[in-house]
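Narrative summary of target 7.
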Amino acid sequence: MYGKIRISGNILVKTGMHIGGSGAFAAIGAVDSPIIRDARTNLTMIPGSSLKGKMRSLLAKEFNERVVEPNEDHERITRLFGSSKKGNIKKSRLLFSDMVLKNEEELRDAGLQSMTEVKFENTIDRITAEANPRQIERAIRNSTFDFELIYEITDENENQVEEDFKVIRDGLKLLELDYLGGSGSRGYGKVAFENLKATTVFGNYDVKTLNELLTAEV
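Modeled conformation, tokenized:
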């Protein structure tokens, strides 16, 4: 059997989120830490690599018995995210997509002039009491992004699909209980996954059970 299943939905930003872009050529007086943006629209975006890396690191805490290199992750993780270990290379079963802001019009209708905010923060030197101010750009609260994963089915993993989807569900739930981007310990990057749905986009796999798994309480 060969097939592809799309997992789609929305990512709702519940607190200001910072996923950094490059500030190497910032003008004098510009924001110290800008966010990454889509080059075509200049709108805020979530790189697929950020989502993939965060999900994998959280699942490693759940499944690994100790801290290991990524190629030594638990088998349930490496079969989803891949491994480049010599002699045991595994292709990722999950394909992640970059996600661009989808509700710009809604936010502007609410009176917002910009799709980002600049948060001013200070770090204080404990010895000298000297302040070190900085400006951090964030995607604003209630920003919504289209979410999409593609899961690949082959003869090798045909009997592991439901188990894999339980791991995917756990990864998404762990991320909701954690944060996406930087400065999560200071309240940044709280997100929620909404309207999750599995759809067969190639092949004829019955996704009824998979949809039940995605929406089930962990």
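The two ends are 29 Å apart (CA to CA).
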